[in-house]
Amino acid sequence: MVTKPVKKEKHAVRREREAEWIKEVIVEAAASVFAQKGYHGATIENIAAVAEYSPAAIYKYFENKEAIFMGLRATIENRFTELFSEPPPVSLPFDDYLRWFLSRVCTLAERHRNIFLSFMAQIPCAMDPKTSTEFHKGAIGWYVKHMNNISKIMEKGIAEGALRRGDPVVYATAFFGIVQSFVMGWLISVKPYPLADSMDTIVDLFLNGTGNGRKARLSGGKP
Fold first, then answer.
1. For the chain, which terminal residue's Cβ has fewer other Cβ atoms within 10 angstroms, N or C?
2. Count of CB atoms within 10 A of residue 151's CB?
């Protein structure tokens, strides 16, 4: 009878968990450095200093700075995947569903503020194909994946009659743009405030817009 090397397996699992934990520490440190110095201004030495590891130790887990940023992107993507994968505990009408979804986005953003700030600040750089092929592909892939997920939410609104008939991708683009602008404003605010305070405004802007219900005058005459 062959016995399994239980102790060796336990040690291997422990080492794997430790490596994952160290990677998370490095990514968190990188998020802080990227947020302060930008992607191009940050160095492995900067990241190592914040993570309290030597540069050599950083290279043990990440090949280069780009690999660290890709790890940062993966962290955000995994968190967002969790947001879309779990349904609400009870059936909700569309407007309440949006609030429920946004409450989870707010909780995620506030829990990982540095990572959000760093990632969103680097999106223009990541979208530039001249920067890096993997960098560019990763950013585009992240955007397309989550726009598809948001489009499914919009399909729910259309099916329920909460949204008028239209292209769910267009609605998803509008919703994403409103949310992104509020999140960015919250991230760069000098005076901290709960992101959840903006939730009702976001839903109202998306569902009702900013018009006053009157037809716009194109002739330039007095109202």
1. N
2. 19
The angle at the Cα of 70, spanning 141 to 102, to the nearest 5 degrees, equals 60
Q: Which domain holds residue 101?
A: 67-208
Is 80 contained in some domain? yes
Residues 169, 151: contact at Cβ < 8 Å?
Answer: yes
Give the Cα separation of 120 and 123 in Å (integer). 5
Burial of 25 (0-12, 13-18, 19+ CB in 10 A): middle
16 in a structural domain: no
**Amino acid 123: pLDDT:** 59
**Prediction pTM value:** 0.69
Q: Which of 2-6, 106-110, 119-123, 165-169 has the highest mean pLDDT?
A: 165-169
What does residue 119 show for φ and ψ, rounded to 5 degrees? -65, -45
Domains contained in the chain, number: 1
Within-domain flag for 40: no
